[in-house]
Amino acid sequence: MTATGSSRRQVAKEVKDIYGPFWEYAQDVLRTRIPNLADYPIPEGYLHKEAMTGKGKRQALVTTDSYAFQSEKLRQIRTAHVQGGSALQVLNFVMFPEMNYDLPFFGADLVTLPGGHLIAIDMQPLFHDDAYRAKYTEPVKDIFERNKRNLPWGGDFPEEAAKFFSPSFIWSRPSEDEAVETHVFAAFKDYLHKYLDLVEMAEPVKDPVRLQNIKESQLAYLQYRAEKDPARGMFLRFYGEDWTEEYIHGFLFDLERKIETGEYSPPA
Ligand code: DBV
Fold this sequence. Notes:
alpha+beta, 8 strands, 22% strand, binds 15,16-dihydrobiliverdin
């Protein structure tokens, strides 16, 4: 059911779009720092989605907007921006490297719920050996040390997900909006620029064994995230099962599907 003009305008006026400035900033940086940045196809019906949720005073419009780009070294750069009033704001921004690079994934999961904010920002490693850590975790150490001072560790964390995060993982649950607008935004900018530095320096991998290892590690990450997406429950409530499963497997974590359909074959 689509909201009438007046109630949509009324809802929008009352609610702060806390992560809009993050995505505005990121788009500017992507456009200025990535050569030949191109649009990435977003499936029909997934660019913008909305639904009314809740009853009476708690009724709210929940919109989900999707954005996606691609470049020579980044197979998919995509964002889901969910806005559901003051009780729910989400920016999930992930960059997936091409399979002939051993680059980590850039992952930012910025979530605002009634109970407060949940922040996960990381360069998620493909491998956990010393050589890989020296290449992709060491360079992040300084910005990690600097930003974690203002963003204390977020506590409880799904054990099974730990292998997908690096030692420089920013995981925090700030309670004040002000901390998000200042400290989280600062960390977001630092990690975005550092990641694009690593992308700029990355050389294509030629060794067939290493290429196979990269493929297996990328697919393991994508499969985990598609299977255990913490937002699945939320999307199911708002938009139903068909839309949700297609959004997760056909856009948010689409590698397996793209390989199956032959739309993507790892660069030789
Ligand atoms: N998380 C996503 C996508 C989202 C999203 C695509 C577009 O991967 C939102 C939406 N994350 C989201 C929401 C919550 C979380 C929680 C709405 C809150 C769920 C709730 O409490 O109801 C990092 N995101 C989390 C959590 C972690 C992450 C650790 C808390 C634990 C949890 O609820 O599972 N990033 C996220 C994650 C991995 C990752 C789980 C796993 C590898 O890379």
